[in-house]
Amino acid sequence: MLTIGRLADYAGVTVKAIRHYHERGLLAEPDRDSSGYRRYTAEHAVKLVKIRTLAHAGVPLARVKELLDADPDTLTAAIAEIDHDLEDRIAQLRRARGQLAQLRGGDRLFVSPEVADHLDDLRGLGVSERAIRVERDGWILMQTASPEDAALWIAEKRELMADPEFRALYLEHDAAYDWPPDDPRLAALADRIRNWFAGRHSRSEARPVHNPAIARLAAQSLPGASSPAWDRLARLVEG
Amino acid sequence: MLTIGRLADYAGVTVKAIRHYHERGLLAEPDRDSSGYRRYTAEHAVKLVKIRTLAHAGVPLARVKELLDADPDTLTAAIAEIDHDLEDRIAQLRRARGQLAQLRGGDRLFVSPEVADHLDDLRGLGVSERAIRVERDGWILMQTASPEDAALWIAEKRELMADPEFRALYLEHDAAYDWPPDDPRLAALADRIRNWFAGRHSRSEARPVHNPAIARLAAQSLPGASSPAWDRLARLVEG
DNA sequence: GCTTGACCCTGCCCCTAGGGCAGGGTTCGA
DNA sequence: TCGAACCCTGCCCTAGGGGCAGGGTCAAGC
C-alpha cells in the first residue's frame, strides 16, 4: 500500500518532513512491513494534509499538534486567528515590495517625507550633491536623536527656504566650498550672512534652527564636509 | 552620537540583529567610545536601512552582503528578481489562506474535485456517512497509487451513478450494513446485484470499475468497513 | 538469475536569523 | 547619589527541515 515516498508526493511534502512530523509527534508512526518500511493508510494521508495545510500557513509545529485534536470550536477560532495573521503577513510583504522599489534611488527610505521633499527642493535649486548629502546625513542624525524635534526643525527650515534671500545665501555658501580661501568674495558673503541673521533676530523670532552640536557631528561624519574656504568663511562670520 | 539602541529604533530592527549583521560582515563595525560602546554615523544608518529593506524582503543575508556592493545594473536586475519572488510568496500565502478555509469541513483538501463532487452527490442521495468515508479513503489510496488511473475511474464511477438501478443498489447495499446476517432481504439483494452485473457484462463494456485489491485495502484501513451482513452478502453474490 | 536504478532505513551534523540569559560595566535624569 | 535604562561579550537555543553516510530492498529488464 502507501509508502512514505508516495504519501509525500500526494501531500506535496518531502519525505524528510514526514519523518520530522513523526519525531515531533504530529503524525502517528504507521505499522512497518516485513522489511521495516513504513506503510501508511488513508487516515495518515488525511492527517498529513491537515498538518501541511497548517504548516504552510506558517503555524508552528507545536501549535499544529495542539490543533490537530482540538474541538471544532477551538479549531474554528484558531483558524480565524491564523487567517488574520496570514493577512498581516501578506500586507507586510506588500510593504516590503514598496520599500524594495525605493531602494534603487532617492532618499525616501532614510528620512521622513518632509525631509525628502526638502532634499528634492534643494536639488531643484541646483544645490550640489555634496551639500545635499551633508543635509541628508544631518537630518538622519537628527531623526535618530529625536524624531519629534526633527519634525519641528524641518518645518522651520522649509519656511526659511521660502525666503529668496536665504535661498540665495544657501546657494552661494554651497558654491563657496570650492573657492580659494583668499577669495575676496568670501568677505562680501560673510557680510550678507551676518546681515541676514541680524534681520531675523530683530524680528524677534530668534530660535536656532540647527542644533550646532548636531550640525558639527553631521559634518564630521562625512569626508569633504568642510573646505579651506568654508573654514575661512566661518571665521569671517564669527567676526 | 548614535548608540546601537537608537540606531536600532531608527531602522526598525533589534539591537541583536545589528550585532548579527556585524558578525556576518554586512555592516562595518563602527568606532568605539572610551567605554567600549559602538558609536554610529549617518552612513551606518543608511547602510542598515538598505540591509533591513532587503532582509525584510526575504533575501538571505549572504545575498544581501553581495548586493550591498554590487554595481547599479546588477542591483537593478536583482531587485527585479526579488520583487518577483515576493509576488510569488504573496500568491502562495493567498493559496494557503484558501486551503486553510477548507480545513474546517469537507473533503476537497484530500481528493480531486471530481471525487469531491461525487462524495457530495452521495450525500445528496442519503448515503450513510460511514459509506461516504469508506469511499473517500478508497479514492485517497487510489490517487496516491496512480492519480491518472484514479481520474479515469472516477469518471466511470460517476457515469455509473447516473444509472437509477445502480443508485438503488448502492443505497440498499449501504443500508444492508446493519441488517442481521440472516435477514431474508440479503438473498433478494444478492440476486439483483448479480442481475445488474450480468446486464452490464452483456452490454460488452465490461471493465472492472474498482480495482479489487485497492478496494480491499480501503476496507481494511477503516474500522467498521465491513459487517456480518456484508460478509454474508458477499458470499451470496459470489454464488 | 542478475543487475541497475529507484526506494527505504537510521543517525549524524548543518543551516538561517536571530532570541534569551548570564554576568558585568556605563550613563543619564531626578 | 541612586535607580532605570543602556551597553558589552559569550554562550546556548530554536524551527523546519537539508544533506550525507552507510546500509538494506524492490521491481523491471536482459
UniProtKB/TrEMBL annotation, chains A, B:
The keyword rRNA-binding belongs to this UniProt entry's keyword annotation: no
Domain HTH merR-type intervals: 1-70
Keywords tagged on the record: DNA-binding
Keyword ATP-binding part of the UniProt annotation: no
Recorded GO MF terms: DNA binding; DNA-binding transcription factor activity
PROSITE patterns: HTH_MERR_2 (PS50937)
Record InterPro entries: DNA-bd_dom_put_sf, MerR-type_HTH_dom, MerR_fam
Stored SUPFAM superfamilies: Putative DNA-binding domain
Cited PANTHER family: HTH MERR-TYPE DOMAIN-CONTAINING PROTEIN (PTHR30204:SF93), REDOX-CYCLING DRUG-SENSING TRANSCRIPTIONAL ACTIVATOR SOXR (PTHR30204)
Protein's recorded name: MerR family transcriptional regulator
Organism: Planobispora longispora
